[in-house]
Design a protein that fits this description.
five-stranded antiparallel sheet; elongated
């Protein structure tokens, strides 16, 4: 099973971006998407942004993932 995770772009340097997910930072490639700016939310998979999403969708998805994690570890 593959899972794409929403992340907020906090820095861009050419075709690389630093994103933040739950306080952790990771460098990802922006080679597969266009028109990404600092502050945008992207879905990341296998080290690359694969889609841009809005903040509301990102927050809803992250909330669902947190709840799912809570259920698994009960």
């Amino acid at each position: 099973m593959c899972l794409g995770i929403p992340a907020k772009v906090i820095k861009i340097d050419d075709h690389l971006a630093t994103v933040e997910i739950g306080g952790a930072r990771k460098e990802i490639g922006l080679h597969l998407v266009d028109n990404i700016s600092v502050g945008d939310y992207v879905i990341i998979h296998a080290g690359y942004a694969i889609n841009k999403i809005n903040e509301k969708e990102a927050e809803e998805t992250l909330s669902l993932l947190r709840r799912l994690g809570d259920e698994v570890y009960r």
